[in-house]
Automatic annotation (TrEMBL):
The keyword Protease applies. Residues 16-130 form the JAB domain. It comes from Conservatibacter flavescens. The keyword Zinc applies. One of its GO terms (biological process) is proteolysis. InterPro entries: JAB_dom_prok. It comes from the Bacteria. This is Peptidase. GO terms for molecular function: metal ion binding; metallopeptidase activity. Keywords: Hydrolase, Metal-binding, Metalloprotease, Protease, Zinc. The lineage of its organism: Bacteria, Pseudomonadati, Pseudomonadota, Gammaproteobacteria, Pasteurellales.
Length: 153
């Protein structure tokens, strides 16, 4: 279990989940690829547990861009919550041959998520995977807070 922190919120995850996402992203190399993050908060909302992810099948991607279908209802997050107790908590995508740092486009996408009436997520998480053609190079988790993305340390 890896733990990262921002303010009074801890983020924990198994490295195996990140490795699984990286393997899938490498399969889509040299284009970006991504999906949704699933997890849950502790009862006191001081700890966020990332427990899984979903892939998307409707998307447009290139070596420098990834845009998923905007309608996230296709994944039926309510049903996933009822069956597993996991919530939609954010997004993940790869940056082939690039850093694991967010772009202006990534920041705007997270702002759009917060602004969406049907999502009701105030502090979504963004995971960016830096990949090469055959391995995970680096990764960063960010939280959207006060109109900016902040890296979990």
């Amino acid at each position: 279990m890896i733990v990262k922190k921002y303010k009074n919120l801890q983020l924990d995850f198994d490295r195996q989940i990140v490795e699984q996402m990286a393997k899938i992203a490498i399969h889509h190399y040299p284009n970006e690829y991504g999906g949704f993050l699933l997890g849950y908060y502790s009862n006191d909302f001081t700890r966020l547990h990332i427990k899984g992810f979903l892939l998307v099948d409707k998307y447009v991607s290139s070596p420098v861009a990834f845009r998923r279908e905007l309608n996230i209802k296709i994944h039926n997050f309510e049903k996933i919550f009822q069956e597993t107790g996991l919530y939609y908590i954010g997004e993940w995508h790869s940056h082939p041959n690039a850093s694991a740092w967010y772009s202006l486009t990534d920041l705007q996408a997270m702002n759009n998520i917060v602004s969406c009436n049907t999502v009701q997520l105030h502090n979504p998480v963004l995971l960016i995977l830096s990949i090469s053609s055959n391995k995970l190079l680096d990764f960063n988790f960010f939280v959207f807070d006060e109109d900016r993305l902040v890296v979990y340390e």
